[in-house]
Amino acid sequence: MFIPKRIIFEKDSLKYDMAKEVFDKFKDKDNIEIINMTSNKLKQHIPGNDLFSQYREGKKTLVVGIKKSLKFQSCKPSANFQLPLVSGCMGQCEYCYLNTMLGDKPFVKIHANINDILNQAQKYIDERLPNITIFEGAATSDPIPVEPYTHSLERAITFFGSSANSRFRFVTKYNDINSLLNLKHNGHTEIRFSINTSSVISQYEHATASRDQRIEASMKAAKAGYPIGFLIAPVFIYSNWKEEYHDLLLELKNKLPNDLKFPVTFEIISHRYTTIAKNRILDIFPENKLPMNDEERKFKYGQFGYGKYVYQKENLDEIKQFFIKEIEELFINKEVKYII
């Protein structure tokens, strides 16, 4: 559970039940600062004189606000729309692309007007009938650490569970999912777990659950009848990477129930970075050991108009061939969404 150092309530947010619950939960904690905003100058309440300290103070900050614009962002190719429950994440993953998207002070923000958000989702569902509309709940966030006091996932899972023409999916690096296990999801929500080798997690994914904790949580979700998936990302090439990724996949195979109701899905993304991301990472994590030598990479233009540094073609081919072979040999009821 995310326990912030400070909680900032945006103007009018305390009119909503979720905000009131957050306030009641933390109001008597002496070590948590409660700030009620009367203006829109949010970032002045988050200290820090440089990017290094601003990042860390931002990561300790919870903002309780209202989602005013109810025009949902597209989320292709994995979903039709983002479901804006939460933005930001308490994790401090050195490679994370959100380091370049959420500004100098990357706070966690929850939206208290969950009813408005789900009502808007229903409008999108109705507009696309008879097609099934898919919503992604973690495009710019990890909603699990704040779930104990937002109950946003609980509301969303129950909502989509009763909707014949919609589906919901989200991904997490955390394991606190017990409150979701007995919900009436009707197989309409896919819970995906971002997973990696223990070496990668311990070196780069700070303030997240361990590999084994995530695997244990994924098995709980599978046994509760949820469709589950694994996002193996980012894949790094290092001295014994094949052995460690094989061990990871073997552990998943050995732990998965034999009577899965749905195919387990795999999404595999190799490590890549932009110049902007690299420069910011070097400021935030000056002692990082991420493999970001431009000369060893291939520069590739992305779909959003900016370029990124990816592994060389022969390295990418090796990654693809490795995971295709391993997953095919180890898993029966599975679907590989993509390997990039």
What brief labels describe this structure?
single chain, pyruvate-formate lyase- activating enzyme, alpha/beta, 5-stranded mixed sheet, 32% helix, 340 residues, 22% strand
Assigned CATH architecture: Alpha-Beta Horseshoe
| Structural domains: how many | 1
Q: Order the strands across the largest sheet as they lie in space.
A: 4-5-9-10-11-13-14-17
Level of helix content?
Answer: 25-40%
What would CATH call the class?
Alpha Beta
The first-to-last residue Cα distance is 32 Å
Radius of gyration, in Å, reads 20 Å
N-to-C series of helices and strands = EHEHEEEEEEHEHHEEHEHEHEHEEHE
Q: What is the mean pLDDT?
A: 95
Q: What is the count of DSSP helices, taking H or I runs of 4+ residues?
A: 10
pLDDT < 50 stretches: none
Label the structural class. Answer: alpha/beta
Strand content: 15-25%
Q: Describe the sheet with the most strands.
A: 8 strands, mixed
Write down the overall geometry.
globular
Task: Give the CATH topology.
Answer: pyruvate-formate lyase- activating enzyme
User: Could you give the count of β-strands?
Assistant: 17
Protein name: Spore photoproduct lyase
Organism: Clostridium puniceum
EC number: 4.1.99.14
GO molecular function: 4 iron, 4 sulfur cluster binding; DNA photolyase activity; S-adenosyl-L-methionine binding
